[in-house]
From TrEMBL, chain A:
Residues 93-308 form the ABC transmembrane type-1 domain. GO terms for cellular component: plasma membrane. Belongs to the binding-protein-dependent transport system permease family. GO terms for biological process: transmembrane transport. It holds the Pfam family BPD_transp_1. The chain crosses the membrane at residues 32-51, 97-121, 133-153, 182-206, 227-247, 287-308. This is Putative aldouronate transport system permease protein. SUPFAM superfamilies: MetI-like (SSF161098). It is a multi-pass membrane protein. It is found in: Cell membrane.
UniProtKB/TrEMBL annotation, chain B:
The keyword Cell inner membrane does not apply. InterPro entries: MetI-like, MetI-like_sf. Residues 82-282 form the ABC transmembrane type-1 domain. Pfam families: BPD_transp_1 (PF00528). This is Putative aldouronate transport system permease protein. It is found in: Cell membrane. The lineage of its organism: Bacteria, Bacillati, Bacillota, Bacilli, Bacillales.
Amino acid sequence: MKVESASANFETALKPSKRESKGILHYFRRDWQLYLLLLLPLSFVLVFKYAPMTGLVLAFKEYKIAKGFWGSEWVGFEVFRDIFAKPDFAKAVRNTLLLNVLDLIFSFTMPIVLALLLNEVKSIRFKRVNQTLLYLPHFLSWIIIGAVAYQLLGEGSGMVNNAIEALGGTRIPFLQDDTNWLISYLAIGVWYSMGWGTIIYLASISGVNPDLYEAATVDGAGRWRKMWNVTIPSIRFTIVTLLIMNLGKVMDGSFERVFALQNKATTEYTTTIPVLVYRWGIESGNFSRATALGLFQAVIGLALVLLADRIAKKLGEDGLI
Amino acid sequence: MKATGGALIASRRRRFDIWDVLIRLTLIIASLACLLPFVHVVSKSFSEDAYVIANKVFLWPAGFTTEAYGKIFADASILRSFYVSVVVTALFTLLGMILTICAAYPLSRKQLKGRVTLTIIFTFPLFFSGGIIPEYMLINNLGMLDTIWSLILPLAFSSFNLLIMKSALTNSIPVSLEESARIDGAGHFRILWSVVLPLSKPIMATLALFFAVGRWNAYMDALFYIKQNVDLRPLQLKLYYLVIQASESFQLEATQVSLSNPEVLKASCVVFATVPILCIYPFIQKYFVQGVMLGAIKE
């Protein structure tokens, strides 16, 4: 019986046209165990990922708790017209793009630099100790990082400010002033991701053909020449792919990061789209408006990812999807 | 040409290379930037209040004391949050692994009819989701608000981890091995249990850690779903209210006369919440690195 099914499998691989006639029941009978296994995860995906998508109709309705989800009135694009006119909306979109684009500019290059430097180190132990320390922030929650940030950068008692004062300077409100907050936010982002980001580049560098380095040495290339003319061109595709992937994410939220670092004194840059969704929806209970804002973000996000995928494929990459 | 090459080799042989030193120095500074903030917080947590108030604590405790930790271990609500986090993380990881394996194995079998469609159904949520509010309403409608299940069930299925598991199973299990098992009369369940799973222990360890560390560190869903039932706050959320928002004070015993400086208590809370991760960090790091590599490779 089992042997039969295995051979049947081979046959059909050769003649796919005959397979259609066998009907779907045949496959169910043969692979019912596989379909049975899929049942549990499929139900989770349908309930927790797809069922919420039906909730998106709220963006086109005037949600009233008394009337319920289905009973509420359809209002077309009225909710969108409503949110587009809100000053908070423009601010949230601006902040989301601003934080993500600046993050991309500053956090993207540091891992490449560190990976190139780590690659120059011959001692394996030195490399390993450094990597262990550099990866550390990635394993901690944004709450912990936010708390540590306030312990270090707080105006009243932060260690950095204590050191500045001890050296004769004046205290700087690193996190309690809008512009400073933005700079600190970005610096913390660089700090958080600089080590972890090296992993992919280091893997990419380790795949470079050693003959290239040998040839470069024979041609008289020094350390920096080899880095510039051999290593960087070899990992160029990795860099471009990661850059495009990150470009596809510029509408993403980073809610946990903003939320853990924000405070009452700095509100100029902390209103991003997910923060506004939280405020409108969960804090104020205006579900229609918050859903519409979330949908707006999701649609643009999807478009950006598809665009990024297109660009990657145009450049001769595998594509992301 | 040859002369420069010779000079280069000669300079290589020299013991002292200024660039080597500078590169190492840069790396050491970067590493210290990652380490020292935590050294400071640990030092603060072991320091006496007076020194902390006077801003005298830098990278070493001043006036060593464990008083703050005594207070944390006397605070039932913090211990309770820790317990909630442990239970949630354990159940979440177990469920997440079961779901991932149950989905990844069938989807990695080429013979499965409808494989492409099913894979699309499972991975589409990576690119588009209902968003915060529809998900919140779903949890509300299911009656899971303020229950432990709101932290376990919704995120237990991860499309990303499924893709990693699926590509690992596709690449690492030889088809011939599975075929010989089938000829021996083994069904899919049997093959999964006796052949596939024992061969994929490393990837399972990696994904289990992805699930566990991700769950341990996340707080957004808890912030949304755990509102009234404060007993169910996981550790990260507790820490948010305690340290970041500082809206909640520590449960101090009425008999306690001296109130500690909140800075010291905050520092020791951070350490208390970080230590579990730090304890396992040296052991799990390499699995994470492998996971990143697998995630970067598409099928």
